[in-house]
Every structure is written in structure tokens, then in C-alpha cells.
Design a protein that fits this description.
- This protein is of the alpha/beta class.
- It is 18% helix and 43% strand.
- The chain is built from 3 helices and 28 strands.
- The protein has helices at residues 2-62, 187-198, 399-402, and strands at residues 71-76, 83-92, 95-104, 107-119, 125-129, 136-139, 143-144, 147-150, 155-157, 175-177, 214-217, 224-227, 233-234, 238-241, 243-246, 250-253, 258-271, 276-289, 294-303, 316-319, 324-331, 343-346, 351-364, 367-381, 384-387, 389-391, 394-396, 414-421.
- The strands form 3 sheets. Strands 18-19-21-23-22-20 form a 6-stranded parallel beta barrel. A 5-stranded antiparallel sheet has the order 1-2-3-4-28. It has a 3-stranded parallel sheet with strand order 9-6-26, with no helix packed on it.
- A hairpin with a 2-residue loop joins strand 3 and strand 4.
- The longest helix is centred in the first third of the chain and has 61 residues, at 2-62.
- The model has no long low-confidence stretch (mean pLDDT 92).
Length: 423
């Protein structure tokens, strides 16, 4: 009798254990089916959102209208579907900026990017000198490669301080005729640049102070406006993203500072030796880039000058030995001040990989890999000076211009492409 009870108890325990095993296996099977279905649905929705983002990106790139102020809109992507697109387009320094958000049911994805035109009448040009009835003279080891738009008075070898032209050919490329004006900058960009200059003295803007050493602000968020103290010093700071940093006197950027895609605005901007980062600098009076600096793609240096109300002065941009700019170097005349000419100085050993555009005088002893558009070249060494001469200069065609998509800054740029994916 005792043995029978033990057998019955043992059978009951075995049955319970077996039931638990079966229940666990069934639960695991159900969970497997659930998660398989969940991740399958998630993948399908994720792919759908990616497709919606691609539709939004194509929509932005096909819209060639640039406005000086931010424009936002939203709409349904497909009739009768729950897919929608909300977007903002604006100018960010020298580059158009778009931020997108697509939604499907309760799911969403965002994307932000710089973009620009890849085609223009002058996209195969390496040199454009406005026609002011003066020939362009070459001296020393000057090398020019690519199509050159030059004054009708032409191109010739020249002497400067007993130094003649050392090469057999004046240019490796085709010579075409320029006009008295440079290819025009887009009116939207010119108006926008004027707005940026007004940040310096605008007392109605609610600026914030830079209280943290390291800050990131996504391009999906509103811009953060930072005002620096009088010394304008950026030392050991890390700023990445949608920031506009303003000073009413000077901005000094030390090598220990890390900047990514930030806009700087001040009368004077000074990059100290060894700085590296991607920035866009806008100065009323001067921008100085000291030796061994590396301004990474896509960067820009813009000399705004001062208009009549602010003092009638042209800006100066100076690039020193062994510094590199991957982007745009742009010097403009102030509104109504066509006689106040800006100056760009690219010294020996300095390199611009991209586009140089100057409404005034260019001193070129370094290298431009891309294109340079200027009204005049100028050279001065000691008591000797000469207009429209190049000495030991290098101008070559480069992918830094052809594949950089900078041509939105001109009127009539076409075939827009993404320049840089943002965060």
C-alpha cells in the first residue's frame, strides 16, 4: 500500500514537471512567433519610413528655389495613405540646409543635410578675371590649368623685381573672354548674408551665454544663438551643430577648440595656429587663418565689408602658410559701396580646395584647387607693386569644386545634390 502511494506521488510529480515543460515550450513558441511578427512589422515600417525619406529628399533636391529666410511646410506623401512629410528649408552660411521628418502611423524618422547645385555655366572654369581693360601677367613658376575667362587684352608673361616667367606655356587650357562683372551671386544669399551681419548689433535678439564646454545641437532643433564676452575667446570648447556664435568685437579660436558646422559672426575673426574643424565664418572687417590650420569640408570664409551706415570699409581675408580651406572663400562689397574693394590674400604654402570669389583684389602666392573668380589680382613686395599679375601661383582644376556642389551660391545653378548628411 505504501509502495502504491509512492508510485502515484511520483507519477503526479512527473506529470506536473512535464506540464511545466510543455507550457514553457509553448510560451517560448508563442514568444518566438510574436517577436518574429514584431520585428518583421518593424522592418517593414522601417523600410517604409526610409522610402518616405527618399521621397522627401528627392522633393527637396528638385526644388531649386532658395529663400533668405527659413521656410517650413508639411503634406501627405501619397493620396489615401498615412505617410506624411514635414520639412524646413533654409540657408546655413553658404549652403542650403534641409531638415525632414516623415511619419507613418505612430512611427517617424528624421534626416538633415546640406545640399547644393552641381551644375553651372562655369563649373569647368578654373580662373575668371573680370575685364577692366588690363591684361593678366604671369611671372615666376605660375601654373594655370583649365578653362580661363580673361580680359580681352589677354594673357602674357611678365617681370616683377627681375623675375620673369619660367614655363614654356602660359596656360594648360582654353582661354575665353570675360565681362566687366563676375558671375552674379544669388540674391537670396546676398540678402541672407546681410541679415547675418546685422546679428552683431541687433539688441532685440535673445542671445544665450556659452556656459558649457561641450555642447551638441542637432539640426532637427531650433538654432541656438550664443553671444561671447568682449574677449571673444573660444578655448577648449566643443560646439557641434546648429549654433550661431556672435561677438560685437572679435572671435579668437584656439587650436584646442573643436567646432563642427557652426556659424561664427564678428567684425574680426582669428583662427590661431593649429585649429582644425568645419566652420563658416562671417566677418565685417577681417578673417585671419594662421599657419597649420585645417578648415574641413564644407567650410566657408566670408568677408562682408561694412555698408555706408557702418563705416564704408572693405573686408580682408588672409590665409597664412600651410593652412588649408576645404570650401568657399568669399569677399563681397558692402551694399552701395562698389568702390570699396575687399581683399583676399592666399600666401605661399596656403591652399584653398574649392571656390574663391572676390569682388576686389586677390593676392595669390599659394594654390587654388578648384576655381578663383576675381576682379583684380595684385602683388606687392616691399616698394614694388603691380596690378593683375600672378607670381608663383598655382590654379588647377579639382574635384574639390566639381564634386562639392557649391554652385547654388550663383544664380542659375542646377542639378542639386546632397553635400553632407547631418545629425
Amino acid at each position: 500500500m505504501l509502495l502504491l502511494k509512492k508510485v502515484q506521488a511520483s507519477s503526479l510529480v512527473s506529470t506536473i514537471i512535464l506540464s511545466l515543460v510543455v507550457l514553457t515550450m509553448c510560451s517560448m513558441l508563442l514568444l518566438t512567433v510574436y517577436y518574429h511578427k514584431y520585428f518583421q512589422t518593424k522592418d517593414i515600417i522601417g523600410q517604409r519610413l526610409n522610402d518616405d525619406l527618399q521621397s522627401g529628399i528627392h522633393f527637396i533636391l528638385n526644388d531649386t528655389v532658395l529663400m533668405p529666410r527659413a521656410f517650413a511646410d508639411s503634406f501627405s506623401l501619397f493620396e489615401g495613405m498615412q505617410d506624411s512629410l514635414a520639412y524646413t528649408q533654409q540657408l546655413w552660411g553658404c549652403f542650403p540646409l534641409a531638415s525632414l521628418q516623415v511619419k507613418y502611423k505612430n512611427h517617424s524618422k528624421t534626416k538633415a543635410f546640406f545640399y547644393g547645385a552641381s551644375q553651372h555655366l562655369y563649373n569647368n572654369t578654373s580662373l575668371y578675371v573680370a575685364d577692366h581693360d588690363r591684361p593678366l601677367s604671369l611671372s615666376g613658376d605660375t601654373y594655370i590649368e583649365g578653362n580661363a575667362y580673361l580680359p580681352k587684352s589677354g594673357l602674357r608673361s611678365g617681370f616683377f623685381g627681375q623675375q620673369g616667367f619660367s614655363r614654356k606655356k602660359l596656360i594648360e587650357g582654353e582661354i575665353l573672354s570675360s565681362t566687366k562683372t563676375l558671375p552674379p551671386i544669388s540674391p537670396s544669399f546676398k540678402e541672407y548674408f546681410l541679415q547675418l551681419g546685422h546679428y552683431i548689433n541687433d539688441t532685440t535678439i535673445n542671445f544665450e551665454e556659452l556656459k558649457e564646454d561641450s555642447v551638441v545641437n542637432s539640426f532637427d532643433l531650433p538654432v541656438r544663438l550664443i553671444q561671447l564676452p568682449k574677449n571673444g575667446l573660444l578655448l577648449n570648447n566643443i560646439l557641434k551643430g546648429k549654433f550661431i556664435v556672435v561677438s560685437d568685437s572679435v572671435i579668437n579660436i584656439e587650436a584646442s577648440t573643436k567646432l563642427s558646422d557652426v556659424i561664427l559672426i564678428a567684425p574680426y575673426i582669428h583662427f590661431n595656429t593649429g585649429f582644425a574643424g568645419s566652420i563658416q565664418a562671417f566677418a565685417l572687417d577681417s578673417i585671419t587663418v594662421e599657419p597649420d590650420c585645417n578648415l574641413r569640408y564644407p567650410s566657408s570664409l566670408v568677408g562682408l565689408g561694412r555698408n555706408e551706415m557702418l563705416g564704408n570699409t572693405g573686408s580682408t581675408i588672409t590665409l597664412h602658410n600651410h593652412c588649408t580651406v576645404e570650401g568657399i572663400v568669399l569677399a563681397l562689397t558692402g551694399e552701395g559701396n562698389s568702390n570699396i574693394k575687399p581683399t583676399i590674400k592666399i600666401k605661399q604654402g596656403a591652399t584653398v580646395n574649392g571656390l574663391v570669389y572676390n569682388d576686389g583684389y586677390s593676392y595669390l602666392n599659394g594654390k587654388v584647387a578648384g576655381a578663383i573668380f576675381t576682379h583684380f589680382f595684385f602683388e606687392q613686395r616691399g616698394p614694388l607693386s603691380m596690378e593683375n599679375i600672378l607670381i608663383d601661383a598655382t590654379i588647377v582644376q579639382s574635384r574639390w569644386l566639381k564634386e562639392a556642389n557649391y554652385f547654388s551660391i550663383f544664380t542659375e545653378g542646377t542639378r542639386q545634390k546632397v553635400m553632407k548628411w547631418l545629425y
